[in-house]
Amino acid sequence: MRYFLELSYRGTDFHGWQKQPNAPTIQEELERAFGVILRQPLEIIGSSRTDAGVHAEQQFAHFDVAEPLPAPDRLIHGINSILPNSIAVKNLTLVKDEVHSRFAATHRCYQYRIVYQRNPFLVDLAHTYRPILDVQKMNEAAKLLLQYEDFECFSKIHTDVKTFICQIAFAYWEPTALGITFHIKANRFLRGMVRAIVGTLLEVGRGRMNIEQFEQIIISKNRKNAAAQAPACGLFLTEVGYEWNELLN
User: Fold this and answer.
1) Is 13 a catalytic residue?
2) Which of 25, 160, 200, 248 sits most deeply, having the most CB atoms within 10 A of its CB?
3) Nearest Cα to 240, choosing from 189, 180, 195?
4) What pLDDT score was predicted for residue 19?
5) For residues 249 and 96, is the Cβ–Cβ distance under 8 A?
6) Per-residue pLDDT tens for 87-110?
7) CA gap 41, 109 in Å, rounded
8) Are 77 and 26 in contact (CB under 8 A)?
9) What confidence score (pLDDT) does residue 63 get?
10) Catalytic: which of 13, 51, 73, 150?
């Protein structure tokens, strides 16, 4: 029996989603909690492998068990009582046995949140950025992302992927009460892609790079030409989309 797990987490205290030796991760904490409640070891596979310090307002994962889970609501309550306060399980859904949380996803949405002044209530939940930014030019540059599909220039070097092709549906900056937020949606993302895009767009906003130079970086397919990644604290995975009518039994 395969179940989809919906959850959210604050990534500050974790070294990303994926298990690794001698470092706390989201996957490790989930497998530990489910193992205690279900009294059996299991592997939980995430829809997106968020990096260290990155947050998720909506994340999905899947796992397999031999028998249907009784009383899912009670199970969720029990698991949440074991998990750290920075992780919360929301829903459990029985799906077809062959459905994979990562490969079945139709799209993912991220937000990158910037505030202009230090805010004690947003520590590790937004990037504090003081320089004045030309948001209009940043949005003009962001529109260029929709015209291309190969984003090797924004991918971490030596990453294990077969293709750098991503189809971006939208990418734009929006003013907020405290700063600005970058919104981006695509069918898939490369490792470090959103933070590299944000870091490079900030160079455009500061006047250190013009729109033509931004486009040339995309065309170059060379990560060394793009700017440094923006800090992880401002990045949120906000939505993972599925064709649910195709997933359910």
Assistant:
1) no
2) 200
3) 189
4) 93
5) yes
6) 999 999 999 999 999 999 999 999
7) 31
8) no
9) 97
10) 51
Strands 107-115 and 179-186: antiparallel
Q: Which residue has the tokens 């030596």?
A: 158
pTM to 2 decimal places: 0.95
Question: Which stretches of the chain drop beneath a pLDDT of 50?
Answer: none
| pLDDT for the residue numbered 162 | 87
For residues 131, 118, 236, 222, the Cα torsion angle rounded to the nearest 10 degrees is 30
Residue 104 phi/psi, 5-degree rounding, is -85, -15
Would strands 55-64 and 235-241 be described as parallel, antiparallel, or unpaired? parallel
pLDDT, position 70: 85
HEC readout, the chain: CEEEEEEEECHHHCCCCCCECCECCHHHHHHHHHHHHHCCCCCCEECCCCCCCCEEEEEEEEEECCCCCCCHHHHHHHHHHHCCCCEEEEEEEEECCCCCCCCCCCEEEEEEEEECCCCHHHCCCCEECCCCCCHHHHHHHHHHHHHCCECHHHCCCCCCCCCCECCEEEEEEEECCCEEEEEEEECCCCCCHHHHHHHHHHHHHCCCCCHHHHHHHHHHCCHHHCCCCCCHHHEEEEEEECCHHHHCC
Q: Residues 65, 38: contact at Cβ < 8 Å? A: yes
- pLDDT tens digits for range 223-237: 999 999 999 999 999
